[in-house]
Amino acid sequence: MFQEPSLSFANYVCLTKFLYKTQTTETKRYYFTMSKDNKKEIDLSPRIDVTSRLEKGQARKVLSEILKSDPSFVSYSKHGQGQMKARGLIAGDVFNVLMAGKIEGDPEFVNESWRYRVATKNITVVVAFRKPNHVTVITAWRN
Q1: Which neighbouring-strand residues pair with 9?
Q2: Does residue 50 belong to any structural domain of this protein?
Q3: Burial classification of residue 84, based on how many CB atoms lie within 10 Å of its CB (0-12 exposed, 13-18 middle, 19 or more buried)
Q4: What DSSP assignment string belongs to the chain?
Q5: Pairing mode of beta strands 74-76, 134-142
Q6: Chain centroid to CA 87
Q7: Which of 49, 66, 89, 102 has its CA 20 to 30 Å from the CA of residue 56?
Q8: Domain limits for position 28
């Protein structure tokens, strides 16, 4: 049985992007709370563990769900920020690649996380999933 955690109205108002996690025996549900009555739900079942190696389709699904729910759940590593600046890329370029790009090649296990290349015709972005609701841009370049 699903039980929603109790949060005061003040928490809903003050923490407009507050994330809380609830768990049932069948599935894990992640809620992105916008207001007291308006919730955007991402449902990632336990069979998708983003810290393990994902197939291309699974990685694409997780990435799409994160981007649809809230673009602020995309962060940039220091290396990624430096490379984007040096290569004349802006966050909008990277976001468009993440939305429309295809996952290419096999994932690589580097620094204790799986990394995925998301590419369009002109730009490639390398990302890592560190949490079920978060993606980190590791680097990006023009093809």
Answers
A1: none
A2: no
A3: buried
A4: ---PPP--HHHHHH-TT-EEEEE-SS-EEEEEE-SSS-EEEEEE-TT--TTS---HHHHHHHHHHHHHH-GGGEEE-HHHHHHHHHTT--HHHHHHHHHH-EEEEEEEEETTEEEEEEE-SSEEEEEEEEETTEEEEEEEEE-
A5: parallel
A6: 23
A7: 89
A8: 9-44
Question: 91 and 25, same structural domain?
Answer: no
Q: Specify whether 39 is located in the same domain as 67.
A: no
The answer to whether 108 and 127 are in contact (CB under 8 A) is: no
Beta bridge partners of residue 124, listed in sequence order? 119, 141
User: Is position 51 within any domain?
Assistant: no
> Which tens digits make up the pLDDT trace of 43-98?
444 456 778 899 999 999 889 988 888 878 899 999 999 999 999 999 999 999 99
pLDDT at 100 over 50: yes
Q: Are residues 68 and 128 in the same domain?
A: yes
Q: Which two tokens stand for residue 69?
A: 């729910």
Q: How many domains does the chain have?
A: 2
Whole-structure pTM over 0.85, yes or no? Answer: no
Does residue 114 belong to any structural domain of this protein?
yes
